[in-house]
Amino acid sequence: MTDTTERTARIDDLLARMTTKQKVGQLIQYFYFSLPAGAGEGIDPFISRQPQAVEAALAEGVVGSLLFVTDPAETNRLQKLAIEGNEHGIPLLFGFDVIHGLRTIFPVPIALAASWDADTIERAQTVAAREARAVGIHWAFAPMVDIARDARWGRIIEGAGEDPLLGSVVAAAQVRGFQGEELGASEHIVAGPKHFAGYGAALGGRDYDEVDLSDQEFWNTCLPPFKAAIDAGAGNIMSAYMDLNGVPASGNHWLLTEVLRDALGFEGFVVTDANAAKDLETHHFAADAADAAVRALNAGVDMEMGIFQPAFANLIEAIDDGRVDTARVDEAVRRILVVKEKLGLFEQPYVDEADARRVLADPAHRDEAQRAAERSAVLLRNEGGILPLDPDSLGSVAVIGPLATSQRDTLGPWVFDFDLGETVTIAEGIATRLAGKASVVVEQGVAEPKRTFPSMFEQFGDTSPSAPADFDADAALDRAVRAATDADVAIVVLGEQQDMIGENASRSDLSLPGDQQRLLEAVVATGTRVVLVLMNGRPLDIRWAAENVPGILDVWYPGTRGGSAVASLLFGDTAPAGKLPFTWPRTVGQVPIHHAITRSHAPQNQDKRYWNEESTPLFPFGHGLGYTSFEYAEVRVDAERVGLDGTVTVSVDVANTGDRDGVEVVQLYLHQRFGTSSRPLRQLAAFERVEIAAGQTETVAFRIGPDERRYWSAATRDWVLDATVFDVWVGGDANAQAHAEFTVG
Ligand code: GLC
Predict the structure, then answer these.
(1) Is 514 within 8 Å of 473 (Cβ atoms)?
(2) Which of 92, 200, 354, 605 is 20 to 30 A from residue 631's alpha carbon, by CA?
(3) CATH number of the 369-578 domain
(4) Do residues 682 and 669 make contact, with C-beta atoms less than 8 angstroms apart?
(5) Residues carrying CATH 3.40.50.1700, the chain
(6) Where in the chain is the domain with CATH 3.20.20.300?
């Protein structure tokens, strides 16, 4: 990596010598993949010639970046084309969806968030970055930092849930993991937080639908994780697909310039989501592709991620006829070249293929993935302490459910370069753990549930398997019931297939898909002890299970070593310590739902807003049990009153009252009793993950200063600090009861 002076000189020189077409080329990113013969022809003639068309453009030096290449030999080959095919030799930036691992697959992002453990999250993305950089990928389209409060929205799985503070901590940890100490660090890559901004509030939870967001929700809830990612040094931001308050995010000057640049101080480059510039025409916002390109660039987009014939190709003419300033184009090119410079691509554009193979095979990466999976699981229920199971006292164990044996589902969505063969399923993990101790019988029980409409990845052949045509459902259920009847314990693995969650995977229902509920009830009816293991990315309607199944462990989609991690948790080698990153509704009728609501009117009835069912959640935000118990003593404040800019230290003694060492995520919730705006009853203002030995007590202290109390008010349309009285609650979830108060002003 060169120093700033050299860097600027090189970029100034290139800008002075590049043609307009070459400058515009730097602003274009192409998907590079070969589609099945004939695929896409009806959509756009360009896509059927994609590889050839892209390679021709590479040689001409009119491509800035490619995505969807993960083979080091290919990245080297294409890089060579781009560098040696023309007089400027500007290296390509290879971007990719490195969402939760590349070859070593980690738990899905919502699972990593459930660890509430910034160090684990940073370590996970450090491994992902190392594997990506080794194969020639320089940039991750991650972290996804969209706040999600509607479980119907499938992309809830890709983020950190509903809370801006947890989301901010997770976002910053991911950026540090991807980028290292500073952008350009070896074995690290550019982080590209997405989707800017507000995407998670899609109308009805319907992915891609418009978002109407109030200013206070925008500034207080949606934006903080993006700010945290930018403050952590993120080199890129991806603009979102959808209309935000009537203006498409990728053509929204207020959003991409006044907010992102002026308010948040972002200095990196902005890329659109896939085809989102050209789609400004689809939105009926732009008149045609040329208008779309001009308005995206002038709004603040620097690079177009193009699937088909790129809209940005029209910029050449737009510059000539004055619809776009050359200065704006140069600014965008410069932002992109700066990143290429910082990554050292001008000096070292190629990767060592032998080294790539070694890095991808590193067993230490798999160990990290297992460790992350163990720390991400959330123990939702443990009636009578059914968990952990004692492997030495079991004679036989039944493992039941189609997800228990599915390697592909164990990995979850947004994985592409994985090694399926090395993926440890939950059934395999249990069988390995119990080898020589207990017999393990595995029964599918029901057919794999299927989506009604195909997933977006179906066209690439990646979808969950279908039951064979001659699948005998009654016989399968009978075998599962018999296995449970004969077993000392039945471990039932249920949830959603990996293609039922993620992008283009919104759902109008939260029930267990297919016949899984019938299977669960049949297994419980045998009278055998039952533990439910959930594989999911959104909260599911498990009201019946929450009443009838003593042990419920949510393991999400736990990744390459998922089965090993789940076995370790079920049999007590490790203890679950995860906490829910979202509020868990009883039913889909409650969504959107979250913990940070205001008192509003008639707060005494807040648990009975519906006449037919409690309106409280099934499990609160921040909920999660362990294999020990914790008690919170009284909360102490070091000052009863502070000035407007003052800081109060809030401390609490937390005792581990069980007989096992344990980890507790101590959470502090804040509420101001009056002020410029009504504020959340329970605003998560701080948290700390603490290890407490059996029988010991730890004191946990938090500093609550102006930054924790400041918010954007719709009354003044500005940031405010109120002189008021604050309630403080500290505990293990959003229903924390240990209380204190202090006055400000
Ligand atoms: C997708 C997603 C985005 C992803 C991009 C490239 O449609 O919206 O999150 O990074 O396209 O795959």
Answers:
(1) no
(2) 605
(3) 3.40.50.1700
(4) yes
(5) 369-578
(6) 1-47+56-92+269-280+296-361
Answer yes or no: are the C-beta atoms of 642 and 744 closer than 8 Å: yes
Q: With CA atoms as reference, report the closest residue to 741 among 645, 666, 650.
A: 650
Nearest CA to ligand 1 atom 8: 273
Annotation says 273 is catalytic: yes
Q: How far apart are CA 616 and CA 583, in angstroms?
A: 10
Nearest CA residue ID for atom 11, ligand 1: 274
Residues forming CATH 2.60.40.10 domain(s) in the chain:
630-744
Give residue 59 CA to ligand 1 midpoint distance, Å: 26
Which ligand 1 atom is at minimum distance from the Cα of 141?
10
Q: Minimal CA–CA distance to 56: which of 25, 27, 35?
A: 25
Amino acid at 365: H
Task: Indicate yes or no: pTM above 0.90.
Answer: yes
Give the pLDDT score at 43: 67
The string over 685-698, giving b where at least 16 C-beta atoms fall within 10 Å of a residue's C-beta and e elsewhere, is bbbebbebeeeeeb
Which CATH fold would you assign to the domain 630-744?
Answer: Immunoglobulin-like (2.60.40)
Q: Is 274 in the pocket of ligand 1 (CB under 6 A)?
A: yes
- What would the two tokens of residue 592 be? 């959107």
Answer whether 97 contacts ligand 1 (Cβ < 6 A): yes
pLDDT digits (tens, 9 = 90+) for 612-635: 999 999 999 999 999 999 999 999
Ligand 1 atom index nearest CA of 158: 9
Cis peptide, bond prior to residue 197, ω within 30 of zero: yes
Ligand 1 center from residue 273 Cα (angstroms): 6
- Residue 563 CA to residue 223 CA, distance in Å, equals 36
Work out which ligand 1 atom sits closest to the CA atom of 194.
9
* Distance from the alpha carbon of residue 195 to the mean position of ligand 1, in angstroms: 9
Q: Which residue has the tokens 């350009």?
A: 184
Q: CA separation (Å) from 92 to 15, 239, 706?
A: 16, 21, 44
Q: How far apart are CA 531 and CA 554, in angstroms?
A: 11
Ligand 1 centroid vs 96 CA: distance in angstroms? Answer: 9
Q: Cα of 480 to ligand 1 centre, how many Å?
A: 39
How confident is the model at residue 498, as a pLDDT?
97
Measured from the CA of 192, which atom of ligand 1 is nearest?
10
- Cα angle value 127/131/132 (rounded, 5°): 115
141 within ligand 1 shell (Cβ under 6 A): yes
Q: Is the CB of 146 under 6 A from ligand 1?
A: no
Mention the CATH class of domain 1-47+56-92+269-280+296-361.
alpha beta
Residue 599 has pLDDT above 90, yes or no: yes
Query: How many Å apart are CA 639 and CA 645, to the nearest integer?
Result: 13
158-210 pLDDT, tens digit per residue, is: 999 999 999 999 999 999 999 999 999 999 999 999 999 999 999 999 999 99
Of the candidates 243, 273, 279, 291, the residue annotated as catalytic is 273
